[in-house]
Amino acid sequence: MDATRRTLCIALTLAPLAPALGQAQVAGLPIVGMRHDGRPLAPEELRGWRLVYFGYTRCPDVCPAGLQSMTDAIEALGPLGQGFTPIFVTVDPERDTVEIMRDYVAFFHPRFIGVTPTLAQLETMAPAWRVKYAKADAGDGKPYLVDHTATIFLVDPAGAIAGRLSHSLDGQQIAAKIRAVIGARS
């Protein structure tokens, strides 16, 4: 085999291992897509502690309440909260464009990163996180809703899921659970 052909074979073999545009890894768990500001999500943005939530902007109740609780928790943590990055990944990329995500996450915390994956990226990412989602008929000719897993993932600096928190917890309760996890690791 000549050198050119060998180089091509090696490149084709290694290509699937190269990170895709807009993909960052969290301990083997991908976060894939475009940021709310139109840039691809970069791995360096996933350093430190993170709170990750999968939802959609047209969610009538669960998502805004969960995102507000994340914001309240970061504020309740005081100086410790400065080390947290909140991330909102849409499960409705057909409607949640980068522009819509930009406007939506602006209502919550200034450090929120909104992520819009393609449908194909979401189909790969969601099972890795054990997140389920499905369109649901809203009836009476209303736009569809999306049934989805409503969990706030606490991800540690090493990229491991350190906790799964209920979306129904308020900010103080989430902050207390975060302090307990960090305290147990100290």
What structural keywords apply?
alpha+beta; 186 residues; disordered N terminus
In brief:
This protein is α+β, with helices and mostly antiparallel strands and about 190 residues long. The chain has helices at about 5-15, 60-75, 100-105, 120-130, 170-185; strands at about 25, 30, 35, 50-55, 85-90, 115, 135, 145-150, 150-155, 160-165.
Compute the gyration radius: what is it?
18 Å
Q: Which strands sit side by side, in order, in the main sheet? A: 3-6-5-4-9-10
The CATH topology is Glutaredoxin
CATH architecture name: 3-Layer(aba) Sandwich
**Poorly predicted ranges (pLDDT <50, ≥5 residues)?**
1-26
Count every beta strand, where a strand is a DSSP E run of 2 or more residues: 10
Q: Using the coordinates above, name the CATH class.
A: Alpha Beta
Written account of the structure:
The protein is α+β, with helices and mostly antiparallel strands. The protein has a single domain (21-185), classed as 3-Layer(aba) Sandwich (Glutaredoxin), CATH 3.40.30.10. Helix content is 33%, strand content 25%. It has helices at residues 3-14, 62-76, 98-105, 119-129, 171-185; strands at 23-26, 29-32, 34-35, 49-55, 84-90, 113-116, 133-136, 145-148, 151-155, 161-166. The strands form three sheets. Strands 3-6-5-4-9-10 form a six-stranded mixed sheet, covered by helices on one side. A two-stranded antiparallel ribbon has the order 1-2. β7 and β8 form a beta hairpin. α2 (62-76) packs across α5. The termini are far apart.
